[in-house]
Design goal:
It is built from 5 helices and 4 strands; from the N terminus they run E-E-H-H-H-E-E-H-H. The termini are far apart. The protein is 50% helix and 14% strand. Strand 3 and strand 4 form a beta hairpin. Helix 1 packs across helix 4. By secondary structure, the protein is α+β, with helices and mostly antiparallel strands.
Length: 210
């Protein structure tokens, strides 16, 4: 899957924010015919998934802020470690002013909506889900999916590290590549060996004739 800006609404060279709304295209394996009779179900499930991701992100952010607040209250300038350092860029904690500003910050509305579907690709077909959502919600999604490009509160995040195992086809491809490389090297060795033998026999024949 992939996600891109909807170019019809965001021409190249112009600001991505269009009246506070961002238009995105989500690419999935498949074709539009697979949605026949189930388009409303897919749309509802897709919208619920996005809203769930945004809600979970807010809960995680609140818990991290609250943890930093409690550590600051107990230990003054007590330093946080592990995930807390990663979340806040190594800050020691949350000050009273930061905490008040965070509590006053309104929960942004996602305004997420599925606008249409289309197909893309030539040899491989992709189902493209064309959507729109608020600028604040798109920023949160960017922080979830592309940590290295979307800072939190102006502080860069650490790139995410996947702990999922590699798919099986990777091992199959590696084994095939290793096998083909071995066969190629063996074939070249045989060619060089034959050339060397033929050259040696030719030199010996020439010497015997002379």
């Amino acid at each position: 899957s992939d996600v891109r800006l909807w170019k019809e609404h965001h021409p190249q060279g112009k600001d991505a924010a269009n009246n506070g709304t961002v238009y995105l295209e989500f690419f999935y394996d498949g074709c539009s015919s697979e949605l026949q009779g189930h388009q409303e179900e897919f749309t509802k499930a897709f919208e619920d998934m996005i809203d769930t991701q945004l809600q979970e992100r807010r809960v995680v952010e609140f818990r991290k802020k609250l943890t930093a607040r409690r550590r600051t209250g107990r230990g003054g300038a007590a330093s946080a470690s592990g995930d807390l350092d990663t979340a806040f860029g190594g800050d020691d904690g949350v000050t009273d002013q930061d905490w008040r500003e965070y509590l006053k910050k309104p929960v942004p509305a996602s305004e997420f909506s599925v606008r249409s579907f289309r197909e893309a690709g030539c040899m491989l077909l992709f189902l493209v889900c064309q959507t729109s959502l608020s600028l604040s919600a798109s920023e949160v999604l960017g922080q979830i999916a592309f940590q290295e490009h979307f800072p939190i509160d102006g502080k860069p995040q650490e790139p995410s590290k996947s702990d999922k195992p590699l798919p099986r086809w990777v091992y199959t491809m590696a084994a095939c590549t290793a096998g083909m490389t071995t066969i190629t090297l063996f074939a070249w060795w045989q060619v060089v060996r034959q050339v060397a033998l033929v050259g040696g026999e030719g030199a010996a024949f020439a010497a015997s004739v002379a």
